[in-house]
Structures are given as structure tokens and as C-alpha cells.
Amino acid sequence: MFSVSPEDSPQIRQIHGKGTIKVGVKADQPGLASETTPGQWQGFEIDLAYNIAAGLGFPRHKVKFRAVETKDRDRLLQSGEVDFVLATWTMDGSQATKARKHASVPLSFVGPYFKTSLSALVWGTEEGVASVEGIDDIREYDRDRICTAVGSTSEDYLKKEDVDHTTKASYQQCWNDENVHVVITDEIILAGLNQMNDYRTGEGEEAKKGHVVRLAGTVESYGVGLTAGDPIFEYLTCRAIPKDWESNVSTNLEEMAKKHLDSEWTRPTVKFPECSRLDAWKYKMRNFFFWPCCATDRNVARTPGMECGPRHSAMPPQAHSASHSASHSASHSASRAASSD
């Protein structure tokens, strides 16, 4: 009852018609998402992307990753250059809020799939950094010593706290600037940045690691970015988030966080989103019976820009098989919690 599958979504069928699904991810955030060698990707968000794609009927070899920067996440999704975005995107940040209200291509967000806090990665000796306890101490640094990514929630935070700073396209670019001594962003991102990079206080000096200082009272909740208007796409994405979550955190993040943040670091408590199977099913029925397309054949559905045609024509046989398995598993899980779906 109330079953839905990828072939019930005009948007997902359109993506299948292209042969591959394109996912926007960061390329330089170890533990979360990084391109280790050309075409080879790994990280927590990469594994989650594969799980979401599988639920949409795409095997791993049909998933293509596109590197995105913070300032371009919304634009690339709205232009159709990527089909969904998994890039440490804070669901209630200013960029996401603005994207939801976009006049022509509004976005939606499914999550949270991870939670963290804002922090500062500070260059200096352990003794020197010990005096840096929060944003008031960071404010004492000169403008060109403090850096974050343009378009990020950390940029919003620094503006709110009236901290003069510089911005670059990525946090790695901040680190690479020899003038920068403080990088501001999410704690879990800084753990990966610190793992991948060293700094030297002077020529010939020993390479060292930075020190991460947590900024109190901040919470960053990550969501999957989608184009709005397809409850089936949202539902299937939602159902994939808890899958393998514990093992993905252990494999990709835990050791890194304990080494570069706190030896007592524990995985965050994340209240996964409730997935509305009923809304997805209603959307399926609305498309089936009422979608305006070929007047003589109501067994068709289309999204803007699609030609009229059989409802399932864009889904290859292997995708039907893969999506049926994922849908059956999701339906079985959902049936145990129908009141919350």
C-alpha cells in the first residue's frame, strides 16, 4: 500500500534517460569528500551519495561526481549541471534559505544527515593557542590572518560577530595562504584540513599541525540539496540517509576526528528526518491521473522540458531491478513506522 519507486518520478526518469546521475560534492575535504586521484573519490558524503543513488536505481558505475565550491552549490543545482548536492550544506544557513525562495528554480533540502559545530583552526604552538578560547580572542587577529570560504555559514557568523576577515573559494585555499593563521569553518571539515596539511613557523622549522578551537553556541546541520517539487525524489533520498550511517562514520570520520579534534570525540547525535511516503504516493497518483500531457493518453507523465511518452520508457531494465530491491527494503522499513511516514 502507498508504494513508490524511482520510475514513479518524472524527474528521476529524466535523469535515467541521460544514463548517469551527477552529484555535486566537495573535492578537498578529507573524511567527508575528496578526489584522491583523478576520478577516484572517497569519504562519508561519497558513501552516502552512492546509497542515495542506489535507492534511485543507479548502480555505482552510473554515479558521476562533480566538484563544487561553497558559493556555487545552488547555481550548479538550479542549472541542472548536477542532480543533487552533498557538500556540507547547512540546511538553515543563508544560502540554503535563499535557494528555497528562488523565483524560478527553488531548492529543497533533505536531512539532517550530520551535525557539527563551527570552529577555528589556529596556527601556533600549543602554548600559544591555549590562550585562544573563543571568538573574542580570534577577533584580536588582523584581518588578513583570518579566512573562511565565501558564501559559507562561517562567513555569516564572522559578519554577525563583527570579525574582520578575508574570504577565498575554499578552506584549502585559506590554508594555502601564508598570511592566514586562522581558518574558520565546521569542526569536522577542519579535522580533515588539519590531517591533510602541515604548517611551518619559519624556514627550516619542523612541520606542525594546527589546533582546533570550538566556537561555542554554534550548530551546523547538513542536508542533501535537491530541486524542489518532487516528493518521490525527496522520499527516496530521505530513506537512504540512515543506511550504513554508523559504519560510514566509523570508516571515514571517527579516527580522523579523534586524532585532530579530541581523543574523546564521539559521533554526533543526529535525528534523521521523517520520510513522508504518503506525500510521495499522492504525488505519484497526481502525476498518473492528472499530469497535463497527451490528452488521449493519461498513462504518461512529464516534467518541464520532457517529451510525452510512456511513463517507464526512460528507466533501463537494470535500473528497474536495482530500484525495486531498494524500494522493497524501504517499503518494509516504512511499514513498521507508517504513523511517522
TrEMBL record:
This is Glutamate binding periplasmic protein. GO terms for biological process: amino acid transport. Residues 308-341 are annotated as: Disordered. It comes from Streptomyces griseus. InterPro entries: Bact_solute-bind_prot3 (IPR051455), Solute-binding_3/MltF_N (IPR001638). Residues 319-341 have a biased composition (Low complexity). It holds the Pfam family SBP_bac_3. The keyword Signal applies. Transmembrane segments: none annotated. It comes from the Bacteria. Belongs to the bacterial solute-binding protein 3 family. Keywords: Signal, Transport. Residues 20-264 form the Solute-binding protein family 3/N-terminal domain. GO terms for cellular component: extracellular region; outer membrane-bounded periplasmic space.
